[in-house]
């Protein structure tokens, strides 16, 4: 077989485990690091105007974090929650990205927290961004379910904004299919370069109207109850969410697309917070 693009190779080698569809576990051939590793593209982020690379570390913009990995927004919370944040932003980054966040969604979290006070943010910890696309996605989702459940038990009024890029978008989708996640606690979801992308879904944004992602055949979908709170952003010819194209298109989410996603999140979050406080 001759691969004319990275996407073509990915399509024939993608491996998914623990498909969230009727709790059926499907095993496929495991990827190795040579088959799916974007680390060789480190530095392309800066070349494409994103200001950061795909290599580990070097993802600024999150600023200082408090003990436990939390950072708080500026200003007073919208309401007193006994020390709990009004909302909580959790990021799941893409392959080889470091613990400081993602080049795709850091701008989203920064703008939202600068505009709407009372929030906290954190990167999904105990989540491997290695090139393994089997166990690490499942483990990341399991970790996130535990994290959200623990936070809800401590802070039952807190709502959540979930951000995911590339592999992290897969983690997001599996998490939201877990029966232990109360969907009324989800204020907004942003997915960039989602391997589960399918054309024609109502939550789709950013111009891709055809094609499907490299993992779309796994059949993992966003729960229908959350569709109006999801911003599923796939640009045309991004080979991760469209199968064909060039990998440079997978690195273009940090600009206008992130700004548009920020506005979407702020609208959804304000609506959720106002509803929570009883305001109309």
UniProtKB/TrEMBL annotation:
Gene Ontology MF terms in the entry: carboxylic ester hydrolase activity
Signal peptide span: 1-22
Cited Pfam families: Cutinase
InterPro entries in the record: AB_hydrolase_fold (IPR029058), Cutinase/axe (IPR000675)
Keywords: Disulfide bond, Hydrolase, Signal
Keyword Lipid metabolism: no
Coiled-coil ranges from the UniProt annotation: none
PANTHER family per the UniProt record, alphabetical: CUTINASE 4, CUTINASE RV1984C-RELATED-RELATED
Record's protein name: Cutinase
